[in-house]
Structure prediction request, 132 residues.
Amino acid sequence: MKEAGVIRVTHVYSQPPAKVWRALTEPALVARWWAPGDIRAEVGHRFEMDMGPWGKQRCEVLAVEPERLFRIQFALNTTITWALVSEGTGTRLELTHEGFDLDSPMGRRAFEGMQPGWPGVLARIAPVAEEL
Prediction:
């Protein structure tokens, strides 16, 4: 039986959704908090993210709702969704990274590595958004 893993992380920023959105969707900004790549907020856009020692990962933009939702297909056939919710003058960002095949050694290793890693990665968005 195939078991799928899901990672959910929430982070709150003091910046409004417009600034967090830019940090999520503009290549030069994404490179500062996550990885370089030609990311673009355009459904169907295919690009690569350079994940350093893990190599270049093929990605595709699956859903775009400006300042509300951004979803991409990522490595190992996983899906990453960033949902933005306005909260006072700031933004609550809910990340869901799903589709890890926990029955495969590679899928399980990726899940176990990324689960504790995402909170730190999301924290790195704050200084980028503050400068916008």
